[in-house]
Amino acid sequence: MVNLADNAPEFSSLPGDPSKAYTAYGPEKTEAYFNPKDAPKATVDEGDEDDDLFGSDDESEDEEAKRKREENLAAYKKKKEGKTKPAAKSIVTLDVKPWDDETDMKQLEENLRTIEVDGLTWGASKLVPLAFGIKKLQINLVVEDEKVSIDDLQQQIESDEDHVQSTDVVSNILRLLA
Protein backbone atom coordinates (compact mmCIF):
# COMPACT_ATOMS: atom_id res chain seq x y z
CA MET A 1 0.00 0.00 0.00
CA VAL A 2 1.29 3.43 -0.99
CA ASN A 3 1.37 6.10 1.68
CA LEU A 4 1.38 9.82 0.87
CA ALA A 5 4.21 10.35 3.34
CA ASP A 6 6.37 7.93 1.32
CA ASN A 7 6.39 10.44 -1.55
CA ALA A 8 7.20 13.51 0.62
CA PRO A 9 10.78 13.88 -0.74
CA GLU A 10 9.34 14.40 -4.27
CA PHE A 11 7.05 17.25 -3.23
CA SER A 12 9.81 19.85 -3.52
CA SER A 13 10.31 18.96 -7.21
CA LEU A 14 6.64 19.61 -8.11
CA PRO A 15 5.80 22.89 -9.90
CA GLY A 16 3.95 25.65 -8.06
CA ASP A 17 4.33 27.67 -4.87
CA PRO A 18 3.05 25.83 -1.75
CA SER A 19 2.48 29.12 0.07
CA LYS A 20 -0.28 30.15 -2.40
CA ALA A 21 -3.88 28.96 -2.09
CA TYR A 22 -4.98 26.10 -4.35
CA THR A 23 -7.41 28.46 -6.14
CA ALA A 24 -4.49 30.44 -7.51
CA TYR A 25 -3.79 27.64 -9.99
CA GLY A 26 -7.32 26.85 -11.18
CA PRO A 27 -10.26 28.73 -12.72
CA GLU A 28 -11.84 31.66 -10.92
CA LYS A 29 -15.11 29.82 -10.42
CA THR A 30 -15.78 26.10 -10.47
CA GLU A 31 -18.90 24.62 -12.04
CA ALA A 32 -18.85 21.56 -9.80
CA TYR A 33 -21.71 21.06 -7.35
CA PHE A 34 -21.63 18.67 -4.43
CA ASN A 35 -25.33 18.01 -4.72
CA PRO A 36 -26.62 17.43 -8.28
CA LYS A 37 -30.06 18.88 -7.50
CA ASP A 38 -28.39 22.27 -6.82
CA ALA A 39 -26.94 22.33 -10.35
CA PRO A 40 -28.72 24.49 -12.92
CA LYS A 41 -30.73 22.70 -15.57
CA ALA A 42 -28.75 22.15 -18.77
CA THR A 43 -30.09 23.78 -21.89
CA VAL A 44 -30.02 21.95 -25.20
CA ASP A 45 -28.26 23.81 -27.96
CA GLU A 46 -30.45 23.49 -31.03
CA GLY A 47 -27.48 23.87 -33.38
CA ASP A 48 -25.89 20.59 -32.21
CA GLU A 49 -28.49 18.52 -34.03
CA ASP A 50 -27.26 19.81 -37.39
CA ASP A 51 -23.76 18.46 -36.88
CA ASP A 52 -23.50 15.11 -38.70
CA LEU A 53 -20.35 13.51 -37.36
CA PHE A 54 -20.74 10.20 -39.19
CA GLY A 55 -21.86 11.44 -42.62
CA SER A 56 -25.24 9.77 -42.75
CA ASP A 57 -27.01 9.46 -46.10
CA ASP A 58 -30.08 11.44 -45.04
CA GLU A 59 -29.18 14.46 -47.12
CA SER A 60 -29.45 14.54 -50.89
CA GLU A 61 -26.26 13.69 -52.73
CA ASP A 62 -24.65 16.12 -55.12
CA GLU A 63 -25.79 15.26 -58.67
CA GLU A 64 -22.26 15.56 -60.06
CA ALA A 65 -20.84 13.19 -57.44
CA LYS A 66 -23.69 10.74 -58.01
CA ARG A 67 -23.16 10.75 -61.79
CA LYS A 68 -19.40 10.24 -61.39
CA ARG A 69 -19.90 7.37 -58.94
CA GLU A 70 -22.29 5.64 -61.37
CA GLU A 71 -19.79 6.05 -64.22
CA ASN A 72 -16.98 4.58 -62.13
CA LEU A 73 -19.17 1.65 -61.10
CA ALA A 74 -20.15 0.94 -64.72
CA ALA A 75 -16.49 1.10 -65.84
CA TYR A 76 -15.48 -1.29 -63.04
CA LYS A 77 -18.19 -3.81 -63.99
CA LYS A 78 -17.17 -3.63 -67.66
CA LYS A 79 -13.52 -4.23 -66.72
CA LYS A 80 -14.46 -7.23 -64.52
CA GLU A 81 -16.56 -8.81 -67.29
CA GLY A 82 -13.60 -8.80 -69.68
CA LYS A 83 -11.47 -10.91 -67.36
CA THR A 84 -11.96 -14.65 -67.16
CA LYS A 85 -11.15 -16.43 -63.95
CA PRO A 86 -8.46 -19.08 -64.43
CA ALA A 87 -9.71 -22.62 -63.92
CA ALA A 88 -8.20 -24.34 -60.91
CA LYS A 89 -6.96 -27.74 -61.99
CA SER A 90 -5.42 -30.56 -60.00
CA ILE A 91 -3.03 -33.22 -61.15
CA VAL A 92 -3.97 -36.38 -59.30
CA THR A 93 -2.25 -39.77 -59.07
CA LEU A 94 -4.59 -42.61 -58.07
CA ASP A 95 -3.75 -46.12 -56.93
CA VAL A 96 -6.39 -48.61 -58.02
CA LYS A 97 -6.05 -51.92 -56.16
CA PRO A 98 -7.54 -55.16 -57.55
CA TRP A 99 -9.05 -58.01 -55.53
CA ASP A 100 -6.35 -60.55 -56.31
CA ASP A 101 -3.58 -61.54 -58.73
CA GLU A 102 -6.10 -63.08 -61.16
CA THR A 103 -7.87 -59.77 -61.86
CA ASP A 104 -7.58 -58.70 -65.52
CA MET A 105 -5.69 -55.42 -65.17
CA LYS A 106 -6.14 -54.46 -68.84
CA GLN A 107 -9.92 -54.78 -68.46
CA LEU A 108 -9.75 -52.76 -65.23
CA GLU A 109 -7.90 -49.93 -67.01
CA GLU A 110 -10.34 -50.00 -69.95
CA ASN A 111 -13.26 -49.74 -67.53
CA LEU A 112 -11.57 -46.77 -65.84
CA ARG A 113 -10.98 -44.89 -69.06
CA THR A 114 -14.63 -45.30 -70.10
CA ILE A 115 -15.57 -42.94 -67.25
CA GLU A 116 -16.11 -39.60 -68.95
CA VAL A 117 -16.84 -36.48 -66.95
CA ASP A 118 -16.64 -32.86 -68.09
CA GLY A 119 -13.36 -31.51 -66.68
CA LEU A 120 -11.65 -34.93 -66.39
CA THR A 121 -8.64 -35.92 -68.51
CA TRP A 122 -7.02 -39.33 -68.10
CA GLY A 123 -3.23 -39.50 -68.27
CA ALA A 124 -0.50 -42.13 -68.23
CA SER A 125 -0.76 -45.31 -66.21
CA LYS A 126 1.50 -48.14 -65.08
CA LEU A 127 1.31 -51.38 -63.15
CA VAL A 128 3.17 -51.32 -59.84
CA PRO A 129 3.96 -54.55 -57.91
CA LEU A 130 2.06 -54.63 -54.61
CA ALA A 131 2.58 -57.99 -52.87
CA PHE A 132 2.34 -61.74 -53.55
CA GLY A 133 2.19 -61.24 -57.32
CA ILE A 134 -0.60 -58.67 -57.08
CA LYS A 135 -0.08 -55.48 -59.09
CA LYS A 136 -1.92 -52.21 -58.60
CA LEU A 137 -2.76 -49.74 -61.35
CA GLN A 138 -1.28 -46.29 -60.81
CA ILE A 139 -2.95 -43.74 -63.07
CA ASN A 140 -2.57 -39.97 -63.51
CA LEU A 141 -5.45 -37.65 -64.26
CA VAL A 142 -6.16 -33.93 -64.48
CA VAL A 143 -9.40 -32.57 -63.05
CA GLU A 144 -10.98 -29.13 -63.02
CA ASP A 145 -11.75 -28.64 -59.34
CA GLU A 146 -15.07 -26.84 -59.87
CA LYS A 147 -16.43 -29.56 -62.17
CA VAL A 148 -15.05 -32.83 -60.80
CA SER A 149 -15.03 -34.16 -57.24
CA ILE A 150 -12.23 -36.62 -56.48
CA ASP A 151 -14.42 -38.39 -53.92
CA ASP A 152 -17.23 -38.87 -56.43
CA LEU A 153 -14.74 -40.12 -59.02
CA GLN A 154 -13.32 -42.64 -56.54
CA GLN A 155 -16.82 -43.92 -55.76
CA GLN A 156 -17.51 -44.28 -59.47
CA ILE A 157 -14.28 -46.25 -59.95
CA GLU A 158 -15.00 -48.46 -56.93
CA SER A 159 -18.45 -49.27 -58.32
CA ASP A 160 -16.62 -51.75 -60.65
CA GLU A 161 -16.74 -54.34 -57.86
CA ASP A 162 -15.62 -57.19 -60.14
CA HIS A 163 -12.19 -55.62 -60.63
CA VAL A 164 -11.60 -52.88 -58.04
CA GLN A 165 -11.13 -53.47 -54.30
CA SER A 166 -10.16 -49.89 -53.35
CA THR A 167 -8.62 -46.63 -54.55
CA ASP A 168 -6.19 -44.26 -52.88
CA VAL A 169 -5.05 -40.75 -53.79
CA VAL A 170 -1.25 -40.90 -53.95
CA SER A 171 -0.73 -37.25 -54.79
CA ASN A 172 -2.88 -34.23 -55.49
CA ILE A 173 -1.17 -31.15 -56.91
CA LEU A 174 -3.25 -28.00 -57.35
CA ARG A 175 -2.40 -25.76 -60.29
CA LEU A 176 -4.05 -22.59 -61.51
CA LEU A 177 -4.18 -22.71 -65.27
CA ALA A 178 -5.83 -20.31 -67.66
Please specify the SSE layout and strand pairing.
Layout: H1 63-82, E1 87-98, H2 105-113, E2 120-131, E3 134-144, H3 150-158, E4 164-177
Antiparallel strand pairs: 1-3, 1-4, 2-3
Describe this structure in words.
The chain has 178 residues and is an alpha+beta fold. 21% of the residues lie in helices and 28% in strands. The protein contains three helices and four strands. Strands 2-3-1-4 form a four-stranded antiparallel sheet, covered by helices on one side. A hairpin with a 2-residue loop joins strand 2 and strand 3. The protein is elongated. The two termini are 71 Å apart. The mean pLDDT is 80.
How would you sum up this structure in a few lines?
The protein is an alpha+beta fold and 178 residues long. It contains 3 helices and 4 strands. The chain is 21% helix and 28% strand.
N-to-C SSE string, H for helix and E for strand = HEHEEHE
In helices, the fraction of residues equals 10-25%
Structural class: alpha+beta
Count of DSSP strands: 4
Annotation field: number of helices: 3
Largest sheet: 4 strands, antiparallel
- Lateral arrangement of strands in the main beta sheet: 2-3-1-4
Oligomer description: single chain
Contiguous low-pLDDT stretches (5 residues minimum) are none
Radius of gyration of CA atoms, rounded to a whole number: 40 Å
Mean pLDDT: 80
Name the shape in a single word: elongated
